Amino acid sequence: SHVLRYAAGIGSHDAPVRYEDVSAAMLPHRYPAEGRRTIDLELRGLEHRDHEPDFWTIQRNNLARQFATRVTERVQARDVHHLSVFALAPQPLLIELGRLLGDIVPAEVHQLHREPKGWRWAEDADPITFRVRRAEHDAAEVALVLALSATVKDDRVIDVLGADAAIWAIQAANPHNDIMRRRGDLGEFRRLLRSLFDEIKAKHGESAQIHLFPALPVSAAVEVGRVWMPKADLPLSVYDQSRGRGFVQTLTIG
């Protein structure tokens, strides 16, 4: 499996993804296809921060250019057959990475754990209890809350979209910032999200747009973009939590 590393600034902190950590997490099921040579997508030395408007445009364009030359071209040349993805970045950029990955090549997305620190799945961890919430009314503004890492209360969405917003959600019963421990939980999240995208489109129609409010582990954020289908799903307006300003719109997909 080819190792794909993606790192972009999170607030005022850089987000390194060390080779020693990610290669250890792949074994024994897979091993790095090119030894210590990895496919790296990153932008070093950027003075812009994620609360500045230009940040999202610069980072998104940089990611697209690097992905085209370092991933897409190698996949088209049949040089890459499987990717192991290790990513740390603001959530809108992780979702964009997932969109670029799509289904162009089989891939496994890994999760960075806090305790014990590392990328190896802990299959003996307790499974996540997911709760799905469906909007009971139609509305001009449609929100989808994805709250696994933290609680996202309705008033934070209403502050952005207004009191009449139709709010859908996938939530964890006990959200926290180290919740994604098992491969199976990531697969179940994908299944639920795929189903909800279909339900939202059926209820609100082809012309609707989904305002996406994520509070997700990094692996789940990447999978949002992979699950989203450009020819089938509604456009996504992706928000990010900004310190002191609440949720702010960052980028649009589709």
Structure description:
- This protein is α/β, with parallel strands linked by helices and 254 residues long.
- Helices cover 33% and strands 22% of the residues.
- The chain has six helices and ten strands, in the order βαβαβαβββαβαβαββ.
- The strands form two sheets. Strands 5-7-6-8-9-10 form a six-stranded mixed sheet, with helices on both faces. Strands 2-1-3-4 form a four-stranded parallel sheet, sandwiched between helices.
- α2 (53-76) packs parallel to α3 (91-101), α3 (91-101) crosses α6 and α5 packs across α6.
- The chain is globular.
What distinguishing features does this structure have?
254 residues, alpha/beta, four-stranded parallel β-sheet, globular
SS-derived structural category: alpha/beta
Largest sheet: 6 strands, mixed
Into which percentage range does the β-strand content fall? 15-25%
Radius of gyration: 18 Å
Distance between the termini: 29 Å
Helices and strands in order, then pairings?
Blueprint: E1 2-7, H1 19-26, E2 39-42, H2 53-76, E3 83-88, H3 91-101, E4 107-109, E5 130-133, E6 142-147, H4 154-161, E7 166-172, H5 183-204, E8 210-215, H6 218-227, E9 236-242, E10 246-253
Parallel strand pairs: 1-2, 1-3, 3-4, 6-7, 6-8, 8-9
Antiparallel strand pairs: 5-7, 9-10
Helix pairs in contact: 2-3, 3-6, 5-6
Quick recap of the structure?
The chain has 254 residues and is α/β, with parallel strands linked by helices. Helices cover 33% and strands 22% of the residues. The strands form 2 sheets. Strands 5-7-6-8-9-10 form a 6-stranded mixed sheet, with helices on both faces. A 4-stranded parallel sheet has the order 2-1-3-4, with helices on both faces.
